Amino acid sequence: MKFHPQDFLKLRNVRRVAQVFFFSLFLFLVFVTDLRYLKGYPASLFLELDPLVAFATAITTHTVYMGLLWSVALILPTLLFGRIFCNWICPYGILHHFTGWLLGKSRAEERERIEANRYKKLYSLKYVILIAMIAAAIGGTLQIGWLDPICLFHRSMSTVILPMLNLFFPSSVYVRQYFHVGAWIIGFMLLFLVGMNVLIPRFFCRVLCPLGAFLGTLSSVALWRIDRDPNKCVDCDLCLKSCEGAADPHTQLRKSECFVCFNCVEDCPEDAISFKFLPQLKREVTTPAVPARRAFLGTLIGLGFYAFGRTSGASDRNYDKKVIRPPGSVEEKDFLDRCIKCDQCIRTCPTNVLQPALMESGIEGVWTPILNMKIGFCEVNCTLCGEVCPTGAIQRINIEEKTGTGPFQDEGPIKLGTAFYDYGRCLPWAMETPCVVCEEVCPVSPKAIYSREVTIIKRDGNPITLRRPYVDPALCIGCGICEHECPVTDEAAIRVTAVGETRSKDRRLLMDGGVTSSVRDLEKRQR
Amino acid sequence: MSAANNQDLAPENGDAVSRREFLVRLGLTTALVAGTGLAARKLWQPKHYVPGFQKETGQQLKNYSLEASKVYPSLAIAHGTEHEKTIRAALTALGGMDRFIQKGDVVMIKPNVAFDRPPALAATTHPDALRAVAKLCREAGAARVIIADNPINSPTGCFFKSGLTAVAAEMNLDLMYPEASSFAPLQLEGEILKNWTFFSAPFKTATKVIGLAPCKDHNLCHASMTTKNWYGLLGGRRNQFHQHIHSIVSDFTMMMKPTLVILDGMNVLMSNGPTGGRLSDVKPMNTIVAGTDMVAVDSYGYSHLLERDIAELTYLHKAHARGLGNIHWEDTLHKEVTA
Predict the structure, then answer these.
(1) Residue B15 vs residue A41, higher pLDDT
(2) Which residues pair with B35 in a beta bridge?
(3) Domain ranges of chain B
(4) Which CATH superfamily is domain B75-338 in?
(5) How far apart are CA B71 and CA B67, in angstroms?
(6) Among residues A237, A270, A285, which one ends one of the domains?
(7) Residue A136 structural domain
(8) CB-based burial of residue A228 (10 Å sphere; 0-12 exposed, 13-18 middle, 19+ buried)?
(9) Cα distance between residue A385 and residue A324, in whole Å
């Protein structure tokens, strides 16, 4: 067979080059989201491009946070050309495209492939999901992160794929192996979604993706679209063979479903399909096919989610002591307005202390970041989590602001919680044994943990002099290194709980206006 | 695939099989039976014994020290304001870096990078000190210079923010992080330390070892200087050490016989150690102490840099009593110079 260069210059191959480029870019940005490599890379670029993130946070916070303005760069081409994002740029879409080809029906008979790519009513589910998420956002809780593909993929990378790589190839990603609470749930979810491509090609993209639904809705007004010339068409349905979006190019094109992959253009033996400017409206299904009552049901589910979540009390009086948020986090209800569960903070955390929550902060807070001092501790001289947070759930504080030094002297340090002793488990208090590792590692100056020397008579009658530790709640910043380093490793003899955190007025411990540093009024911090 | 109908499945010659098929099928089954038997025989552990749980014996660290010299001092105290000049002066007083490092040596420098702190807080080895020592090693002909530590805080953060990552890049040093595979068991007849996991990777190639420690206050054992610096070579559950801290730290003098130790007393962490945290915890003392006996070096450091009573520094007395060093630094051959 002769090589014809023009054969290579097919739209398909141009698209493939773009897919490889954007997928590699995504992987690169995920990889460099690490203290050692981060430098100035825009680690959250894909999240910032994601218009659903910008749109939904705009509903909950009435603002578009910093880099989220980049989403405009994606909205504009969608309004012109349709859902090009889904098959050209979206790394999660590319993952499903690739795994669908690898595991799915790519080697099946032509007829089977054509049947697999016909539109199904099930595909309108994503619009109901999107409506539910927007309704929840209007209620006041941001829940797009469950299924937004960029959040979902970033989360899977941070908590499953990179730790897995490091498990098989030690020290390839982390110096010490990272752990993530409940990683198996996120891992199986990823496997399930990838595996579903065997039954339904692009299952996630066609059935579940709320971003796809959002872009699909926008693309109703697109000026260009795939168009079939009925005069040339011989109704062979071959255009369906590789149709990624199941957009029915063989009849009236479902504009909101089309991924603009251009496969149909090249698969058509009669040259009946082209990408056309302003084709006739009668040859398309312009808007998403969502029955009004389903949309209403979606609204009910979204509002219900908000109401059931809120009235469970986890973000209010019944808050869990384990909900210790990253430094610079906004107050809990505002946090739930902003956090998209992308877990970029978890990716960049140099100590592995940040963990995806399960039910600690209620149903609303699943996979939002909380600190687990058994696994890590908050490094005082570090603000990386705020640095990569795309939505401002964790603010971009600097070290001086975090530690309450320099211009922030009057405001005092940011406290994540307060450490409490469990003297029954503490070696010098209960077991006649010297220790005070907690005091040694306490990073604030003067140390929040101090010790008093006592001489006691041991059980065997001999005297021993040891130091017994105490916490000064006014100085404790709740970093948790004391808990992390405590030799009582299963349940430490000193543990940090959320009370005393400066981000919340309701969760303070010490009275304002006292003599000690913790009581400096943190109202100044509520920006 | 079309389903086979009964006619296809009916035997043509009764139930006979060909000789070839007979041999292949019989052979396969026999091989699997034999394989199972052999595997069982090989793997069966008949006694009540679980492999992998026997008492393990670790390796011992080599002695990296030089033979004692009657000509050169074993302790040098240099006063000055710049790291490089002062360290150079101290080394010159000891007889020059050539005395310790020869051409082709692989030098392991052990800084103290226990905490994620900027250099100004004096909780970690100062980048200028590392740069100066690495330069001296290179001038003396060192083929490679390794730096390694197992910090308490995150390793990457500690090296990065202490400024040592930058020096390592600038000077082309081998920075070794404490990876899981970097550790191996160590054997010692210490007072407490008998068998412990330690950071062995750098010692696979190192021919010389230099300890480069800041001079710091310590909440539990009073001071962290060149002796306590070796804590960073150990792994495992180090937070148990505090139950016998003075015994353990004195065991370090037995565990590690370095070529040279250097105590950086240019800026001393006087209080709130070992972490520090405020500039007011730091006091400029403008002194570098170098020597071959870490007990003598630390003894000077405790009394003259931290300005405290040596009587209370139990671990040094323990080391002295065990003949592992001389706490009476003024009795050793020493030299005091100004850069």
Answers:
(1) A41
(2) none
(3) 75-338
(4) LarA, N-terminal domain (3.40.50.11440)
(5) 12
(6) A285
(7) 5-285
(8) buried
(9) 14
ipTM here: 0.86
Tokens of A434: 């010297």
CA nearest to A246, candidates A210, A281, A290, A216:
A216
Nearest alpha-carbon partner for A496 in A410, A390, A405, A418: A418
Of the pLDDT bands very low, low, confident and very high (cuts 50, 70, 90), residue A521 is: very low
Selection from B274, B275, B273, B225 nearest residue B253 by Cα: B225
| Closest among A475, A455, A295 to A380, alpha carbons compared | A475
Which of A167, A429, A440, A490 to mutate to probe the B interface, most B CBs <10 Å?
Answer: A440
Q: Which residue has the higher pLDDT, B10 or B237?
A: B237
Q: How far is A35 from chain B (nearest CA, A)?
A: 7
Q: How many domains does chain A have?
A: 2
Using one digit for the tens of pLDDT, what is the confidence trace for B273-289?
899 999 999 999 999 99
Contact B239 A437 (CB under 8 A): yes
Domain limit, last residue, from A285, A313, A335? A285
> How many Cβ atoms are within 10 Å of B338's Cβ, its own excluded?
10
Residue in the structure block whose two tokens are 């909101």: A256
Of B161, B181, B275, which has the smallest distance from its Cβ to A442's Cβ?
A: B275
What is the DSSP annotation of A211-259?
A: HHHHHHHHGGG-SEEEEE-TTT-----GGGTT-SS---TTSSEETTT--
Whether residues A280 and A414 share a domain: the answer is no
- Enumerate the residues of chain A whose CB falls inside 8 A of the CB of residue B244: 434
Q: Is the pLDDT of residue A425 over 80?
A: yes
Phi, psi of B108 (to 5 degrees): -100, 115
Strand partners of residue B147: B109, B175
Residue type, A162: L
pTM for this prediction? 0.90
Average confidence (pLDDT) over A32-50: 93
Q: Give chain B positions within 8 Å (CB) of A35.
A: 154, 156-157, 160
Nearest to A341, CA basis, from A146, A128, A138, A105: A146
